[in-house]
Design goal:
With about 500 residues, the protein is α+β, with helices and mostly antiparallel strands. It contains 16 helices and 16 strands. Bound molecules: adenosine-5'-diphosphate (ADP), zinc ion and magnesium ion (MG).
């Protein structure tokens, strides 16, 4: 019996505003607990919310980047529930008239092998039900050691921080599709500046709804909601765990209970948090303290015009304009600062292929080791471009350039300064190279004889020996030419 996995995702992304969504308090992370609060976000009686225009702009950027339609009118609604981190007793969210809806998105996705390597990349279309605006709640904090000096308090710095909630239709058919979708959304939000979308900092949170059904069935199975997914990888694992649990249950004649479960990333399993019976009844009603949010066509057009070229368009352009392979171009658009870095390097070096290769191999390795993004690279794109120009002009060899780049990275100096310091100029002088070739030929008479009797593959051996004798300085192209001439003389 084969089973089909069904997944729908809900993402909460913090919008990158300076101030909160309904008051002027700062959204800064890491300040003294409760430093960024006022009567409005503390929920004091009589305090009134005023909508932050910037939150609406960033919500619009997010919606457009994900292919949603922005509604001309949306309504804020009270979602009523009691929890200590929610001083008003309700959250201002949106319900039946959301900010934006009906998104169609195409992502690239691939299943992974046992080691986690992608198999075949393919496009996948999915529907985003809605993206709405809401405020975040505060945080219950527990500090100190249990049984020693344990204490708890509520930090309301986060209360009122603007969020975009993004809900999909149940369109994913595997945990890796869900994984690739969340990464797609993260990059899109970062790309257009709507959100930092960093799961570690908690400014992107994700919940997964999971069910299974027998292949061929039309009706969906009972779903379970998964929470506490602190990374995209945990989300993927939690879904896999849950799918296996459902199948085992159903095959042994049991039934899945509709419930919310938490992922335990130490035990690598999910556990019940609450069942549907205990589920909330939020008693939504329109927020009386806020008028309907009206968004004009001009507003949407202005936002659209201010958007950067999106990753998919940029990828296509990289393939056609610079003749890059799909996989090279995909890697370069994995992050906007990396894509910018690449194009700036091409501007200085006029060699797109070399720029792509140097960035993908040497630069990314150094950046990763230093934990930096391309935008933070101590070697700027103009400097990498200059290095490529020096290789292309035959000043230094590619091999030397690798060491030069590492030194540039460490010292922050330019390529020319390092080449001078280390006396690294490439030897292109045929007289010097001929002398080295003579030495190598004299030291390897057997190989010379073999070459001359037809074993031409030995050329690689000779080139290697000559370059070694030059301490890596000889220009390989000239070595090759001179060797062939001398060996066949
Ligand atoms: P609820 O009323 O429990 O909030 P919704 O219909 O609003 O359920 O859906 C919430 C999320 O669950 C959406 O992302 C949706 O795509 C997903 N979902 C709904 N039904 C299923 C199902 N049977 N299996 C997996 N996901 C589902
Ligand atoms: Zn406030
Ligand atoms: Mg719902």
């Amino acid at each position: 019996m084969t089973w089909e996995t069904i997944i729908g995702l809900e993402i909460h992304a913090q919008l990158s505003t300076e101030s909160k969504i309904f008051c002027g308090c700062a959204t800064r992370f890491g300040d003294e607990p409760n430093a960024n609060t006022c009567p409005t976000c503390l929920g004091l009686p009589g305090a009134l919310p005023v909508l932050n225009r910037r939150a609406v702009e960033l919500g619009a950027r997010a919606a457009l980047a994900l292919g949603l339609r922005i509604n001309h009118q949306s309504i804020f609604a009270r979602k009523n529930y009691f929890y200590p981190d929610l001083p008003k007793g309700y959250q201002i969210s949106q319900f039946d008239q959301p900010f934006s809806a009906d998104g169609e998105l195409e992502i690239m996705t691939a299943e992974r092998d046992a080691a986690g390597h992608p198999l075949e990349w393919r496009p996948k279309k999915l529907r985003i039900t809605r993206l709405h605006l809401e405020e975040d709640a505060g945080k219950n904090v527990h500090e100190g050691l249990p049984d020693v000096d344990r204490y708890s308090y509520i930090d309301l710095n986060r209360a009122g921080v603007p969020l975009a909630e993004i809900v999909t239709e149940p369109d994913f058919r595997s945990s890796w599709e869900a994984y690739d979708y969340v990464n797609h959304v993260r990059r899109a939000l970062q790309w257009v500046g709507a959100s930092e979308a960093d799961m570690e900092k908690g400014n992107l949170r994700c919940e997964a709804n999971v069910s299974v059904r027998r292949v061929g069935d039309e009706k969906f199975g009972t779903k379970v909601e998964l929470k506490n997914l602190n990374s995209v990888r945990f989300m993927q694992r939690a879904v896999e765990f849950e799918v296996a649990r459902h199948i085992k249950l159903l095959e042994s004649g049991g039934r899945v209970t509709q419930e919310t479960r938490l992922w335990d990333d130490r035990a690598l399993e999910t556990r019940v948090m609450r069942s549907k019976e205990e589920a909330h009844d939020y008693r939504y009603f329109p927020e009386p303290d806020l008028p309907p949010l009206m968004v004009t066509k001009e507003f949407v057009e202005n936002v659209r015009e201010s958007m950067p070229e999106l990753p998919d368009q940029r990828l296509k352009r990289f393939v056609t304009e610079y003749n890059l392979s799909f996989s090279d171009a995909s890697q370069l658009v994995s992050d906007r600062s990396l894509a910018d870095y690449f194009e700036d390097t091409v501007k200085t070096s006029a060699n797109a292929r070399a720029a792509a290769n140097w960035i993908r191999s040497e630069l990314l390795r150094e950046l990763e080791a230093a934990g930096l993004s391309a935008g933070e690279s101590p070697v700027g794109p103009d400097r990498l471009g200059e290095l490529i120009t020096l290789i292309d002009a035959g000043k230094i060899s590619g091999k030397q350039a690798k060491d030069v780049l590492v030194a540039m990275f460490k010292t922050g100096k330019g390529a020319l300064a390092i080449i001078e310091e280390q006396g690294l100029v490439q030897v292109s002088d045929t007289g010097e190279i001929d002398a080295l070739i003579d030495e190598v030929m004299a030291a390897n008479p057997d190989q010379v004889a073999s070459y001359r009797s037809g074993k031409e593959a030995l050329i690689g051996f000779f080139v290697g020996q000559v370059i070694k004798a030059s301490h890596g300085k000889a220009n390989p192209k000239i070595v090759n030419e001179r060797l062939r001439a001398k060996l066949s003389a």
